[in-house]
Specification:
about 50 residues; mainly alpha
Length: about 50
């Protein structure tokens, strides 16, 4: 699935959804690990823009 991008959502669409819901984009990523993932790779530090 990942390689085919069947579940991909564009950043601009995610921004618009957040705007309609009244939440920042970072809200969608709450609870995700800030460093590392199950595969052992690095995950970008996701923080709301300040």
């Amino acid at each position: 699935m990942y390689e085919q991008a069947t579940n991909r959502i564009r950043a601009s669409v995610l921004y618009r959804i957040g705007d309609c819901l009244g939440v920042p984009v970072a809200w969608f990523f709450e609870g995700l690990p800030l460093q590392g993932d199950a595969a052992g790779g690095d995950v970008a530090d996701i923080r709301p823009w300040a």
